[in-house]
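Re: How this chain folds, sequence and tokenised backbone to follow
Notation: Tokens come from a learned vocabulary of local backbone shapes, not from coordinates.
Start of record: The labelled sequence and token lines come straight after this line.
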Amino acid sequence: MNVHISKMTGKLDGFKAISSNTMTNPYCVKQNASDNPNNICTKCYSHTMLKSYRKNMQPSLQRNSDLLSTRILTSDELPSVLDAFFRFNAHGELINETHLINLVNIAKYNSHCNFALWTKRNDLIAKYFKNNEKPSNLILIYSNSKISNIMSKPPKYFNKTFNNVLENEYVEKQNCTGQQCKNCLLCYKHNDIDTIVEKVKKY
């Protein structure tokens, strides 16, 4: 069984990604069901898509969930990435430390490519990178779960924060609204921008 690489569309047109199944990730399921309206996970685009018009993606994403979270892949099983920029977790969230280790190893194996990993699982990140070196081509982006509460300082080991605000809030700070990722690349390059702000999407 090979790691499934998705070809992205819409805002992420031109990118490829390695993702997992949001619908079966205990962390995602719990956060999506939260009764806190300020939790961005309650407005999860992935849950909405995978339950409806992207339902056919679930089997391939579930294969990734199973493969990446149950054992460390051998070097022969690591996918070769030909792109200059690549996304981890376009769908889904880190499942466990094994999942994280496999993504780190994929980044190491493809040292020519810049990988960006979005995650809310600071617990897994802090535990792993306390004793392990972070590859220079892996950009860690802390996905802030609180809507309209911009977090400007990334947690330890993270390069950037990603924040969601309401459409009419912090308009002057919204630097991830109205463009495609391939024409921006703020999240995929090492630069002096460490706070990403996007308006909450409507699905």
Summary: The longest strand covers residues 114-119.
